[in-house]
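hey m, so remember when u said the tokens were messed up on ur end? i reran from scratch. heres the input so u can diff it against urs
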Amino acid sequence: MSELGYDAATIGNHDFDGGMDGLDKQLQFANFPLLITNYDFGNTVLNNKTKPYKIFSKAGLKIGVFGLGIELKGLVPDKLYKETIYSDPIVAAEKWGATLKQDEKCDFVICLSHLGYKYSENKVSDIDLAKNTSYIDLIIGGHTHTFMKEAERYTNMAGKPVLINQVGWAGIQLGRLDVYFEKNKKGTCITCKNLLVGSIS
């Protein structure tokens, strides 16, 4: 991922396959930040080794990026994630989305999500996240390994569009989203085709 030039990543359940110590040892190979807002690593070896968000400056624009992880209980053995504390991703998204949009004055907010695209059972998905938050412009998802031909558009609680995209897993398919900005206007995604830039989950 470092050699591919990743700007940032979030944390998924398989990052715990080698336990907390295993994940900690892998961090030395990442020249990009791990972003996560709803895992509290305060009592683990990962304390202070992740960030809630990062802001990128691109052509005079401020692009805010934050991360969300799936609930680990019942998905990952307790001994592998130890004292990691999980919190509600929708609550976390509202808090950090507001920080990026209102406090940091970001022009565009991206959520790196490992929640999963959608479920038949009662689990928080990317679709739930899009519909029940107010500040996210784009959700780049993982976990369910969903191959999407193009991004899908939903309406958030503020009545504004949110795009969701996911490109499968393991770099089998890569995605590209072209976002166009105009002066005095917020970003609008004009072209959403899965071509070049995506995620590995």
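this time it looks ok to me. The chain has one domain: 13-166. if urs says something different then somethings off w ur setup not the seq
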